[in-house]
TrEMBL record:
Its main location: membrane. This is Tetracycline efflux MFS transporter Tet(40). The lineage of its organism: Bacteria, Bacillati, Actinomycetota, Actinomycetes, Bifidobacteriales. Keywords: Membrane, Transmembrane, Transmembrane helix. PANTHER family: PERMEASE, MAJOR FACILITATOR SUPERFAMILY-RELATED (PTHR23530:SF1), TRANSPORT PROTEIN-RELATED (PTHR23530). It comes from Bifidobacterium imperatoris.
Amino acid sequence: MLFRFVCSLAVSMSTVLSIVYHLEVVQLDAFQLVLVGTVLETSCFLFEMPTGVVADLYSRRRSVLIGMFLYGLGFLMEGALPWFAPVLLAQVVWGCGDTFITGALEAWIASEEEDKPIDKVFLRGSQMGQIGGVLGVVLGTLLGNINLQMPIILGGSLCLLLGLVMVRIMPETNFSPAIEERQGLLKDFVCLFKLNLGFVKGAPVLLALLAITLCGGLASEGFDRLSTAHFLDDTVIPVIGPLNSVTWFGVISLIGSGLGILASQLLIARMEKKGTVSRTSVAMSTSAGYILCLVLFAVGRSFWFMLLVFLLAGLMRTIKEPVLAAWMNDQVDEKMRATVFSTSGQLDSFGQIIGGPIVGLVAQQVSIPWGLVCTAFLLLPALFLVPVAGKKRD
């Protein structure tokens, strides 16, 4: 809970105004803006599998700690050097750090809390992350009004501090390596990769869930990178007292986090009352809702209408992700959790690598709204994949 809270605080502080920073300080155009995201996701794709193997062979705790230090270094580089090339390099550094955490964190907590319902554990962790994110948004917005580089640099510093604290207090008592007899790093990697591939091939539900993750990656990069530009270019952002364009983006992020906290709490309360929830229903409704809201956001021109559907689109993603993670966890052997979760992260990154440039070119050559519509269409296959996974096991 502490890790999710503080990590989200630091990351939110660093990223809440990062696109505004990229647009106004680094002065990126639409294609460069998407390219920054593509470089980030390419780094995640390339490093995801090796870092997942490290977590399953050596230590999930160690993997998480390495990730935090790389996060901090990447954010410091991005905030201190406001030019296109250093910003691209920073994406590689903190993108690599993200891969050390992704998969390793979920596998670590699932192993340490084996006797607890994992859906509730993941949802509660997500909720604590959202609470930390709210505080990060507030601090990042206040600091960004002074200087857009300041929240990125301070967020990076906080990541480094969290890493140092977790070195002292983070436990790992239930870890057992996926391969007991070591043959060298390269041979161990190949062996674990083959085990993982064979396991995934024999698990049809897991295959369907991984395909849904790929679709989510295809449909996320355009939304993440172009939504701010859509607000800035295609509507008039009202100035209400201290609410200028910079502050508005902090407020929007704050409201989105608050809605996510509330929705997670309602879902947790429903689970406590009924014992479980239908993962198929949650995944289907949130995927369909995301597509609809994103199309409406793209065609909207009224600021208040765009704000409403933008918040709803973000809410759909917030609800879906921890439920999918818990669903996937049930299909995975304990010793290969980090590797399988890393495979999921790798597919998400691959989807963003493919979808990002496509959407960026559409936005550059046609318009930003059409780029957003294209993003929505990329999620359509998920509507057919969710029932496939649900038929096997819910």
